[in-house]
Amino acid sequence: MSATTAPETPPQQHGKPTKRPGDVLFRGLSTASAFSILLILAGVAIFLVSEALPVFGADPAEVTGGEGFVSYVWPLIFGTLVASLIAMVVATPVAVGIALFVSHYAPKRLGTAIGFVIDLLAAVPSVVFGMWGFQVFAPRLVPFFTWLSDNLGFLPFFETASRTGRTILTASLVLAVMILPIITAVSREVFLQTPRLHEEAALALGATQWEMIRTAVLPFGKPGVIGGTMLGLGRALGETMAVAIILSPGVFTWNLIDSGNITVPAEIALNFPEAAGLRLSELIAAGLVLFGITLGVNLLARWVVNRRAEFSGAN
Q1: For residues 224 and 252, is the Cβ–Cβ distance under 8 A?
Q2: pTM (2 decimals)?
Q3: Where do the TM regions start and end (predicted)?
Q4: What's the Cα-to-Cα distance from 294 to each of 7, 68, 265, rounded to whole Å?
Q5: How far is the C-alpha of 291 from the C-alpha of 282, rounded, in Å?
């Protein structure tokens, strides 16, 4: 008998796996893209700070208003924050309701159609919203503003009503319409990601449709809703053309339904083309303040989302 020899096993190779050129190139491009965002952000911040420095060392009498930069910019900040917060408060409940209807109540075809319309609404240019708010929406709000003044005039927010409807409240409602698609789209996608087992478990325990949404869907989607709301708030804080078209620059007032008040972006858009010298530095400094507010809002949103994610229904 001839002896059979066992086949030799190839020697095992130890060490690092071979890197393919495509993987190395993709990793390098991804890393460069990530760092480019930081470089762009730093470049914008350096530009704003360097161009705004003259106004901080100028004589207060030379600044618009004659009382210094703080007195000039804080009414603009007030108008920006008030308009954005009102828009967020109005838009968020409506957006969450639309998202829940599309994701859990509407038939599939109807929900798809509504979602398509919401996405189209996000593509409408801001100047169109501004013209609609100026020509159509503002005049129709005049009777409502008059009613507020007649019945709630004892409050400083509703003392007198504008006859044109071009008020900070009108601009806020237009902003609410503009940020509605952003919050709706983010909330809808988050609600659709709710684990099916969580929903079925709630229904199996005897929960109604609303109880299932309240105990399973909303806790899971809360971080996403907060993130979408903050994205909408960031859009409202930086909106320029719609607010500039609706509002006419005026003196600061606590009254929300009378003419007056202006936002930082609208102030910059209306005056930047003809600005020069110290006036240009004022506008850039106002942009620096808006930059800081927006950065703070985004950092706060990230902190809230990360904190909420630890206690969400996803865990």
Answers
A1: no
A2: 0.81
A3: 24-49, 69-102, 114-138, 167-186, 236-257, 283-305
A4: 69, 23, 12
A5: 14
Predicted confidence (pLDDT) per residue in 153-180, tens digit: 888 888 888 888 888 889 899 999 999 9
Q: What domain count does the chain have?
A: 1
Residues written for the chain: 315
Does any domain span residue 9?
no
Task: Kindly give the interhelix angle for 168-192 and 218-238, rounded to the nearest 10 degrees.
Answer: 140
Residue 26 belongs to some domain of the structure:
no
Higher pLDDT, 240 or 187: 187
CA separation for the pair 193, 296 (Å, rounded): 29
The residues, ordered by sequence, that sit 6+ positions from 212 with a Cβ below 8 Å of its Cβ are 199, 202, 203
Burial 153-190 (b: 16+ CB within 10 A, else e): eeeebbbebbeebbbbbbbbbbbbbbbbbbbbbbbbeb
Domain encompassing residue 241: 38-309
Distance of alpha carbon 180 from alpha carbon 94, whole angstroms: 8
Cβ neighbours, 10 Å, residue 10: 6
Q: Summarize pLDDT for 99-136 with one digit per residue, the tens.
A: 999 888 888 888 888 888 888 888 888 888 889 988 88
